[in-house]
Structure formats: structure tokens, C-alpha cells
């Protein structure tokens, strides 16, 4: 090593001993020898760092080096070697300005090392000139793979969007169908109510009695709104008691109208007092008119609930898509999480319990709302898949210094240690062929880290997997 430290160049014969150059002819080796140089680096110092402009191509001549990748702000060692002839650096220089020419990793000198260094533009010239066929193959492989990954990524997002749309359509269809059914029934009830009113007011009932009947109707409506919820057993007992009273007073089909009266909060005591002054000849018509009144109120309540549900779903869809928002603006992460849960409701199995632990003191954070919703979608969808239809999904928020932390936790089988380092790789998946192109974590990582200048971390053991998303509360430089 000491003797080599004195060298500044290599001879063509030296270059031929390196496996990378052993098949080159004498002229090519001479060309490399003239343009390359020998450099040394001290141990524990970086030869180059990830993200810096890729200016040189390096070949190891002696010593030990390690290749590092940056993950969540930490440099993770990927490999370590002392094999003479291994290379790194500007390996994509031949692609020119069609890609960003930066170092994709960090090369760290573990011991003192000696390197053959070739400027990136000279390396690119050699590849283009000496290996034109290989160049075309490499270019086709690189850009073809990137294009196919882009298409697959778009396809995956479209599939996810289709799944969400199907779920939202299903959720909207239920209240919409309920509203249509209630409206149709309401029309029938109003018609019957008009008929009963005509029978009561055809001259056989004086004005005072009619006023008493209207007052009774108003009291029944108030009772219907204020009625307490009954258990199934309590409701059944009340219906049986009321049906017996109706039968005793000569009102036919009491078993048919009793459930409606009970649902409106009417019991035997109240109905007996309310109809006592009307006389036996008007009691049946009055009771049936009351039944129509209560049924009408209950149906209008169903319609109101259905329409409110539809409005809530539409609002959640708007919140999820953020279509009416600026690209980046302060958002409430809790609103985003709740909107995502609504959109994914159809995918949440009945055996999964959803728990929320929100720190409502968190201030709005500057963010791209629609893209954060994509992050929540990926994390929640993966959590649901890990629990196989049963378990607890917990969504938590808290403040950690000048960051807001959103945690998605599941009680599934966990992430095996051997694949944990790869989960943020593009298109990495643990699913079977045909069940998806990836876990969405690469997209999530880029949204959180690259676009929001935050961080995403994973902690996992069987029964407890947590993904923590850390987002700055104030914008960078703010």
C-alpha cells in the first residue's frame, strides 16, 4: 500500500489486471491510462456522498470500502468489500443530461484506500464510443424500466381510485335507496292521512273536538321526537300491550299499527288519555290518523338521516380529494384522517375495531392535503391487509417538538425482519402475483420526506406494527 500511495497514474498493464478492463485492447487501455488518475483516501472518510453531483467513476485498487444508502436521515451500510476492481460512482454518466447526474449512494473508505479515478465525462465518452450496441441496450433497459414503473404506478393508483370509488358508490347507494323508499312510503302515508282527516271532519266532529285532535297530533309528534330508545325486548312487550288495548277498544289490526305507535313513543296510558274525550265512534279513526302522523314523522326522520349521510359522504370525498383547496395550505390532519376512513369504510371488515386517539391541540400544518390522504390510504390499507379481517386499527396524533406525528397501528402479523429494510423500495410487495404492484410505501415515503420535508418510520413485531409519519408544523424556512 505504501508503494502504491506514491503512484499518480496506472499503466495499461496495471489496468489490464482489473476485471473491469481486462477485455479492452491496448489502445483503449492507453486511453484510460492517460485520462485516469490514482488517488488515496484516508479511512473513515467518504470518497463521495449521496446526492452530490456525480463527477467521477471510481475503481478500487486497494483497501476496504463500504456502500451506504441514506434512509430517514441515517446512512445505512448496504455492503462492504475489499475486492480489487469493484467500481462505483458516476455509473449512469452515459445517459447524459436525460437523468440527474448525482451519486445514488455514499462510498465510504473503511481503511486507507487507493482508487483509480476517471472523470465522469471521459467514462461516458468511452462507453458511447467503444460499446455502441451495449449503450443502446443499457439505455433501453434504463428508460424502459423507468417508463414501465411509471405506467404500473399510474395503474396501481387507478386501481386504488377505482376501489375507493366503488366503496364510495356503495356507501352512497345505501342512504340514497333508503331515502327513495322512505319517500315512496311517505307519499302513501300522507294520502291515507288526508283520507282519515276527511272522515273525522266531515261534519260529524265539532270544531272543539277537531282542535283537541290537532292538539293530540302535536303532542304525538313531540312525543315521537322525545321518545327514548327501547331494547328489542322492551319494544316487543310494549307492542303486545298496546295491541291488546287496541283490540279491547274495537280497533282492528292492532298488531299492525302498534309497532309504529311504540316507535313514536306512544304507550297505553298516553293513548287512552289522548282519545278519551273523542268518544268511541271517533276513536278508531283518530288512532289511525295518529298512526299516520307518527309514521310520517318517522319517515321524514329517515329521509333526513339519509340525506345527511349522503351530504357527509360527499363532504368526506371533497375533503379526501382536496379538489377545492390550494396545492399547499394549512390543513387539519384529523379531518384528513377521518375523510380517509370514510372513503375506506367499505374495505374495513366488521371484525376490525377502529380506535382514535387524537391530540386536538395540534395546530393546522402546511401540507398538500390530497397527497397526505394518499399516504393515510396506503398505511391504513396495508394495516387492514395485515390483520386478515380481525383486530384493532388505531389512529393516533401527537406533537413532538416542532413536528406533528401521525401514527397508524395495527395488531396484525407484523413485518418480518428480513424484509423490513426493503419496504420503502419502489414496487416492493409481499402480496401474491396479481394482487397489486406494491405496498405504496415508496410513494408514501416520497410524499412525506421529499415533498413535505418530514419523516416516516416503521416499528414492527407480531401483534404491534406502527408507522409514524412526522410532519413539520411550520413550513421549511418559516
Can you walk through the features of this model?
- It is a single chain.
- With 478 residues, the chain is of the alpha+beta class.
- It folds into 3 domains: 2-130, Sandwich (Jelly Rolls); 165-313, no CATH class; 328-472, Heat Shock Protein 90 (2-Layer Sandwich).
- Helix content is 50%, strand content 19%.
- It contains 13 helices and 15 strands.
- The strands form 4 sheets. A 5-stranded mixed beta sheet has the order 10-12-13-15-14. Strands 1-8-3-6 form a 4-stranded antiparallel beta sheet.
Radius of gyration: 37 Å
- Low-confidence segments, given as residue ranges, are 1-5, 432-438
Please give the alpha-carbon distance between the first and last residues: 51 Å
Question: Count of DSSP E strands?
Answer: 15
Structural class determined from secondary elements: alpha+beta
Shape: rod-shaped
Overall residue-averaged pLDDT value: 80
**Largest sheet, described in full?**
5 strands, mixed
Helix segment tally: 13
- Element-level helix/strand string: HHHEEEEEEEEHHHHHHHEHEEHEEHEE
Strand residue content = 15-25%
Helix content percent band: 40-55%
**Domains (count):** 3
Identify the strand order in the major beta sheet. Answer: 10-12-13-15-14
